[in-house]
Amino acid sequence: MSQDADGGGSGTTVTGGAGTGTGTGIPVAPARDTDRLELPGQMRRDVRLLGGMLGEVLRESGGQELLDDVERLRRAVIEARRNPGADPAGDDIAVLVGSWPLDRAELVARAFTVYFHLTNLAEELQRVRALRDRDTGEAPVRESLAAVVREFGQEQGSGALDELLARLRVHPVLTAHPTEARRRAVATALRRISDLVTGLDDTRHGASEQAEIRRQLREEIDLLWRTSPLRAQAMTPIDEVRTVMAAFDETLFQVVPRVYRALDEARRVTEGGQDIGVVPAFLRFGSWVGADRDGNPFVTAQVTRETAAIQADHVLRALENATTRIARSLTVHADAAPPSAGFALALDAAEAAHPELLADLAARSPQEPYRVYLLYLARRLAATRLRHADLAYHSAADFRHDLFLVQQSLAASGARRQAYGQLQGLSWQVETFGFHLAGLEVRQHSAVHARALAEVRAGGSLSAETTEVLATFRAVSWIQDRFGADACRRYVVSFTRSAADISAVYELAARAARGGPPPVLDVVPLFESGDDLGRATQVLDEMAGLEPVRARLAANGRRLEVMLGYSDSAKELGPVSAILRLFDAQQQLARWAARTGVQLTLFHGRGGALGRGGGPAGRAVLAQAPGSVDGRFKVTEQGEVIFARYGNPVIAQRHLEQVTSAVLLASSPAVGERNAAGAERFGRVAERIGAAALRAYRELVGAPGFAEWFARISPLEEISGLRIGSRPARRGNGVVGLDDLRAIPWVFAWAQTRLNLPGWYGLGSGLAVAVADGGLAEARQAYRGWPLLGVLFDGAEMSLAKTDRRMAARHLALGGRDDLAAQVLAEYDLTRRLVLEVTGHDRLLADRRVLSRAVALRDPYVDALSYLQLRALTELRALPAPDSPADDGAGPRREQLHRLLLLTVSGVAAGLQNTG
Questions:
Q1: CB-based contacts of 538: which residues, under 8 Å, 6+ apart?
Q2: Between residues 251 and 27, which one has the greater pLDDT?
Q3: Best exposed site among 151, 157, 676, 744 by fewest CB in 10 Å?
């Protein structure tokens, strides 16, 4: 790209069309030059530097002609944004893109994709700078743990906070949902580039060091350009497991103690520095990766066993390394901190059990008992990993007990800083991750269990499906025997419709045990459809009467989890009705829990995209139904969201602090009362909006031929060629209807059309009815007075800002259905107009300047890739059917067009930073 290349702003999920359009009365976006000038200086430097180096690489690898073509398209799409009247339909740009041979079009698509990767990197680095800059004053940063401790203390006192912390649980669950379009090789290369760019900020580097950094940057960008952006082979479940392990290895293991420390220090400040004890470890992590077999035939019992072993290996290595590092630095002399009686007994027991090992360690650390003992613990961790029974730990609790003895002895001797410094961080790590890293959660469809149970009861030979179901329960038992029950005890049942779906799991587990004890299971019902959400409490009443459930409630302190599916409910009901139904379900479930004395945890199956329940996590938590949080919040994290939130330690800590702060505040009486009052006052308005929105949504998706039309206007059927996950895009085969289509490719494909329809469709029709009945003033009061509607409308506004009407119209034209195209565009225009009227904004994202600026600056570059994608789609749709007589000789061109299409899909995903 050219030296004056510029890009987006904040590291937030952005793209698309902040108020742009032609022939619709929609004003043009803010001036691009102004937006560029408002970029922070360091970010502008980074984007220009990286863009300039990419331009050099393009010239070196493809010649000046390639760079000229890239620049020609770049200037054309920017000018189209500045002067939309000159080429209202974008035909001139389409002609330019269509004039290139396919191999040149591929290179241009790759150039824009790499540019987006580099721009995203620059945005992430700027976000890190901004977070650090905010954390320099005396006042706590907004949404930080320090801020919430101060607010909580002022409103309710420290006693209420301590009581809440004692039961606090924040539980992210990582999933393998295929929404990360980048190859791991690309992500790794970008991390190296990020480290180099960060080095440019280091003022300690002299001129020669700076020059070397720039040389290495050119080398890495050249490598990134020469690395294929597309996977040659589909990912396997174990590939997904190893990819997710990077988030734990590189970020989470180190960040978790910092989160606890931030809360601990905030409490000490509010208490005037008094010793009030350390905060309990309230974070837990779960994982569906390698365990979620709903619709994924490649996740087998053996895969789940192997996943558990991989996770344990990673966490044991991390704990061993941390223990060794702390031991080597803990050179406390015995005279300076005399061992307590308990610690002395533990040390004597170790010497008696392993005299040669202890003698060797003591010889190298004379009179340093704490160092010796911690080195001994590190050896025990290594033995646990390698399965050397005579030295291995039986459980993580045993290791935690040994650490406690060390801490207690140091504290009793007056060395409290040593007791509760690095050692406390290690203690928090083992409490959070155990020896299993993350609790594996098996998920399977209720229909699979029903078929398996019918076969087992009937006797005779079993199908491969049923055999695998039984093997899964045996794998869970194996994991629990080796790593403990917490390593794998939750079993999620997709499409739970009755208590029989829960009972089937327990019966199958008992039959799989072959007369032995079945595994410990907490079966989690997953309510997804509108009808199932409405029947949730009825199902729980029946479920609570099941003997295995009664036994678990008695054993675990009457704790129960219920999962709410945002993705499939939104695909079935549309975004507006799904959010309102989910809120109603939460209200009913919270009341049920209070009535039955159950400690209920609601597990939110939220995706990264707004069409799948995504969006700012903190605001979403604060808008939950009264009583539905109560100190417990569990949520899925997927694909690109995992690495957006947990790829950088500073951003990861900020995210975990934001979510934890929101959970604490959402558990307070004040927030619960506010949400209850909003629901009471504006419930009727929401009902009118939801009913009309549902009618509009159902009218669209229920239209004859809708599924086939959607497949023609979008790369829906081609998305699987990206090989971004091991799971098939469909539960069935072929384009029959939407029921068998997973929510992820549904959202992914709509994003590629630049419509982002799952994030806003139907809201305009709903608002039109509400405004006609109660007036605009009432709708505005509802927006400001009920946090749920505030989140709903703001999320729709963000989706609308990520929509580009002109590019969307070109996609819609591919379907040959003017009626459906007109229906979609009319709803877009209506929704956009009424959302602006209700929010009072003069343009989309008017109150979020950084995000709006990033949207406007990214738009043209996404346009470039969209034009290339439209070319590929148009030509592919015009080719004769594969294997037909007319298809003779079209195979090579189809393959090349398909590759171009996938390149643009990957590139648009990078530009949107939002794939599903």
A1: none
A2: 251
A3: 157
